[in-house]
Design brief:
Blueprint lengths: L1 E6 L8 H15 L3 E6 L4 H10 L4 H4 L1 E5 L4 H6 L3 H26 L3 E6 L16 E6 L16 H18 L1 H9 L2 E4 L2 H9 L5 E3 L25 E6 L8 H9 L7 E6 L8 H7 L6 E3 L5 H9 L3 E3 L9 H8 L4 E4 L2 H6 L5 E4 L4 H17 L1 H15 L4 H15 L20 E2 L3
Parallel strand pairs: 1-2, 1-4, 2-3, 3-14, 4-5, 5-6, 6-7, 8-9, 8-11, 9-10, 11-12, 12-13
Helix pairs in contact: 1-16, 9-14, 12-15
Length: about 425
């Protein structure tokens, strides 16, 4: 098939949205499809380096990057949050113009929008009148008001976000039109699935939005040393954004029975980093918590392997990639039972605490830590189940599996399941006119 992939964020050397964009691009081409990728020039250097390094690989030959630019004045605004929205909207318009020109030359069989993965950011490419696949998309989540005390700057980070979200779905016609014209919308959690249907999506399907390179997975479950007589080693690893809920975790750990030996390692930095020492002191956990700041990605794998429990309680998250990383290395998870965690962390792989009042939620988290400390056999059982679950979600399996689901669910996408023709030699990378 000739596929047009919309991946505003696409960079092989980055994680999050950028990494997702690249992996969808690479694995779609690896299935034998010719893929033209609309993206920004931000990841161009790394993307072209990767393609050059794999120049003899037929997959690289089937990838055709198309670098879409916006006016310099809008590019300048990208450094501020409000500018990101403007930049993306302007880029979508330019991408649509580039797509029209390309389609006249190529005549695409399918359009697939992958990044940004926010439902509210939409895509202009429904206008091509080609079979359209969206997602996996997030964006339907809201932080629980009952836990607002744990989210610094609630008005700025949540109230304003929700207002902007409502404005986008109300006044940007591309949001509703892209959902209504899509043959299938993959959604990353049930909240987004519900919103997509409310906005007119014809067919939706819950789908995992995160995967890992096949090389990340060990060949077998990596056991931890016996817990008897030592501390329970707990890991919190994420960017220090307000919504990641670190104050909630610290408050919960402060309520753990003093007889329980534990140590929390915090790894990560970000906008609320300067507040972390005061949060630790307020919880009176100076002797039980170590903040390591930003750690190199090369150290992340060892961090997972040297701990017994992964505890991340995001107040709003599509689905944290750290969940998958920790499970892939055999760590059980302690988290909140909402958003992507509800749908894609099995009950057999961790403990998910119901979101209730602040007092009830933190107490439940504290009791969960005590329970796992007192039942090390269960801790290991959860870890082994985590490892088994995560093994399904290396990038090649995820992309191939979602293509098969799309082909089965939407007649317009049935060709995704058809055998691909023999590889052809790819054309040089295209650059969209400015």
């Amino acid at each position: 098939m000739k596929i047009l992939l919309s991946a505003y964020a696409c960079d092989p050397d980055q994680g999050s949205e950028e990494g997702n964009g690249f992996n969808w691009l690479w694995e779609t081409a690896a299935l034998g499809h010719e893929v033209w990728c609309l993206t920004t020039p931000r990841g161009r250097l790394n993307l072209e380096k990767r393609l050059t390094e794999h120049a003899t690989d037929p997959t690289a030959a089937r990838i055709h990057p198309v670098y879409v630019t916006v006016p310099p004045s809008i590019d300048y605004l990208y450094r501020w949050q409000f500018g990101v929205y403007l930049h993306y909207l302007a880029w979508q318009r330019s991408a649509w113009q580039a797509a029209q020109q390309l389609n006249a030359q190529v005549d695409f069989d399918l359009v697939h929008h992958v990044t940004y993965n926010s439902l509210q950011m939409a895509s202009w490419l429904w206008r091509l009148k080609k079979p359209l696949l969206l997602g996996p998309l997030g964006g339907g989540m809201q932080a629980p008001a009952s836990l607002r005390r744990y989210l610094p700057g609630w008005f700025k980070t949540e109230t304003m976000r929700n207002v902007i979200s409502q404005l986008l779905v109300t006044f940007d016609p591309n949001v509703r039109q892209s959902l209504r014209h899509a043959a299938l919308v993959f959604t990353a959690n049930r909240e987004t699935d519900s919103l997509a249907r409310q906005l007119g999506a014809r067919q939706t399907k819950l789908a995992m939005s995160v995967a890992l390179p096949a090389t990340f997975f060990p060949t077998q479950y990596p056991p931890r040393p016996a817990l008897a007589g030592r501390e329970l080693r707990i890991l919190w690893l994420a960017r220090l954004f307000p919504r990641k809920g670190l104050p909630l975790v610290l408050d919960a750990l402060a309520q753990v029975n003093p007889r329980v030996k534990f140590h929390l390692d915090i790894m990560g930095d970000g906008p609320v980093g300067p507040l972390v020492p005061s949060w630790i002191a307020a919880a009176n956990l100076q002797d039980r918590v170590t903040w390591h700041g930003r750690v190199p990605y090369s150290a992340v794998r060892n961090a997972y392997l040297s701990h017994d429990l992964f505890m991340l309680c995001s107040l709003r998250d599509t689905y944290a990639g750290q969940y998958m990383e920790s499970m892939a290395l055999g760590l059980p998870i302690l988290t909140l039972d909402h958003h992507g965690a509800t749908d894609f962390i099995p009950d057999a792989a961790g403990i998910k605490v119901a979101v209730e009042s602040a007092e009830a939620t933190t107490a439940a988290l504290a009791r969960a830590v005590e329970h796992l400390y007192d039942h090390p056999a269960e801790l290991e059982r959860l870890g082994r189940n985590s490892f088994t679950f995560a093994a399904q979600y290396c990038w090649p399996k995820l992309v191939a599996g979602l293509h098969q689901q799309a082909a089965a669910l939407a007649p317009e996408l049935a060709a995704l399941a058809a055998p691909c023709p023999a590889p052809t030699v790819g054309s040089p990378a295209l650059v969209a006119p400015e």
